């Protein structure tokens, strides 16, 4: 068997640096295609179902300088969300042609300044059998009483296949992820600095009215990092207290699992946020992020549960745990499979950890794929796994590692 890794070039982009710059790529599997949204806003379709390198099929070029940061297959095509001055949600046909586009800046406003983290941002897109749902937000800073006030404007949209907006849900908080199941859409808010003070809102998919809400009840703006709906409730990753929760319908707590709660390490108290969760009827996987100190942002300590995937049984018991190598910006999921892209560990900057790990909810790790650069987006369907690699240069090394390319791997 050839040792050549099946990849395809995505062009050239400035390399990532030691610290995360936020998402700037996305990938989705749609039929026989892997559709990649790139850092320059373009969309590229590749045939990936056959063994061997991904085969370029089409390339849709975009005017301006957006980044595609979220993507999901939708009604025979794919829907993508931008980080850009317009904060566009675009639906493309299977050949890359644009079916429709909606600019979120119409509702949440344009950027306060033309800097990356102030641009309108489509944090997540998910689909069900009838609609596409998208969460868009805009962040700004305002002087207030001698201090800087953080403010968000955000909207959750329900789109029909033809692009009609069927309803919206507004909040002055920061949506980070969506989960849809049956007639419910769950919205996780990771920061709530304004009047909206609920980390989780579950909406009726027909009209967008709130069915129930939940909050970790912790001090501060941090609330929920991710949510996954089940048939009778939800699992969520709490930023408020660094725990995983299982909720019943209506928000009643069934169990609470400490994941990366504050711990004394080398004389300093540190913690890590649980950023992601994937749930099935047979269990769940939580994924934690970077270590932070209780005071300030810099630390030499490492929380023992940072950058870790934790498998949990339906009753909240720990089954397994495994390193994911570095910070994961998002998950690729299919049934019980969870693909975790490992981007840089900005404190240790260990390039040997770069790669993609694939887990089964019940059984733990089922595949590991090493890369030269950092992996920033992934998708999985059956035996096929695709991942976006980006180049990186660490400030204390000065060497560029990796390239901007699409990987195609097989779990078999």
Notes on the structure:
The protein has one domain (7-410): Methylamine Dehydrogenase, Chain H. The protein has 412 residues and is mainly beta. The strands form nine sheets. Strands 22-23-24-25-26 form a five-stranded antiparallel sheet, with no helix packed on it. It has a four-stranded antiparallel sheet with strand order 1-35-32-31, with no helix packed on it. The mean pLDDT is 94. It has one helix at 105-108; strands at residues 7-9, 26-30, 33-37, 43-47, 55-60, 67-74, 77-83, 88-92, 98-103, 121-127, 132-144, 147-159, 165-171, 174-181, 184-191, 200-204, 210-214, 224-230, 233-238, 243-248, 253-258, 263-265, 268-280, 283-293, 308-312, 318-323, 332-334, 337-342, 355-360, 364-370, 374-381, 384-390, 392-393, 400-401, 405-410.
CATH second-level architecture: 7 Propeller
Would you identify the regions where 5 or more consecutive residues have pLDDT less than 50? Answer: none
Amount of helix: under 10%
**What is the number of strand segments?**
35
Q: What is the highest CATH level, the class?
A: Mainly Beta
Broad shape:
globular
Pfam families: PQQ_2
Organism: Haloarcula nitratireducens
Protein name: PQQ-like beta-propeller repeat protein
């Amino acid at each position: 068997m050839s040792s050549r890794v099946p990849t395809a070039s995505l062009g050239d982009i400035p390399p990532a640096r030691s610290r995360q710059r936020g998402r700037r790529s996305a990938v989705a599997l749609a039929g026989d295609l892997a559709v990649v949204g790139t850092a320059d806003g373009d969309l590229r379709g590749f045939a990936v179902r056959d063994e061997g390198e991904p085969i370029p099929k089409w390339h849709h070029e975009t005017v301006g300088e957006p980044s595609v940061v979220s993507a999901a297959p939708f009604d025979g095509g794919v829907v993508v969300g931008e980080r850009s001055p317009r904060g566009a949600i675009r639906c493309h046909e299977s050949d890359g042609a644009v079916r429709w586009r909606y600019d979120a800046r119409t509702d949440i406003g344009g950027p306060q300044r033309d800097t990356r983290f102030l641009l309108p941002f489509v944090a997540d897109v998910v689909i069900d059998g009838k609609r596409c749902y998208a969460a868009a937000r805009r962040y700004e800073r305002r002087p207030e009483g001698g201090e800087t006030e953080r403010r968000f404007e955000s909207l959750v949209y329900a789109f029909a296949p033809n692009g009609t907006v069927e309803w919206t849900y507004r909040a002055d908080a920061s949506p980070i992820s969506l989960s849809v199941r049956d007639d419910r859409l769950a919205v996780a808010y990771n920061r709530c600095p304004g009047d909206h003070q609920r980390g989780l809102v579950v909406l009726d998919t027909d009209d967008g009215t709130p069915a129930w809400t939940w909050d970790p009840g912790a001090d501060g703006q941090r609330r929920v990092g991710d949510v996954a709906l089940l048939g009778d409730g939800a699992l969520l990753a709490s930023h408020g207290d660094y725990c995983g929760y299982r909720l019943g319908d209506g928000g009643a707590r069934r169990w609470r699992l400490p994941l990366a709660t504050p711990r004394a390490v080398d004389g300093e108290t540190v913690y890590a946020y649980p950023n992601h969760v994937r749930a099935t009827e047979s269990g769940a996987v939580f994924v934690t992020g970077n270590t932070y100190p209780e005071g300030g942002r810099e630390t030499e300590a490492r929380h023992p549960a940072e950058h870790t995937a934790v498998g949990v049984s339906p009753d909240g018991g720990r089954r397994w745990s495994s390193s994911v190598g570095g910070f994961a910006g998002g998950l690729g999921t299919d049934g019980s499979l969870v693909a975790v892209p490992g981007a840089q560990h900005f404190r240790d900057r260990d390039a040997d950890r770069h790669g993609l790990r694939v887990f089964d909810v019940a059984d733990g790790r089922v595949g590991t794929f090493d890369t030269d650069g950092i992996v920033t987006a992934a998708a999985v369907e059956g035996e096929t796994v695709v991942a976006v690699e980006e180049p990186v240069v660490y400030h204390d090394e000065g060497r560029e590692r990796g390239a901007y390319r699409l990987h195609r791997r097989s779990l078999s």
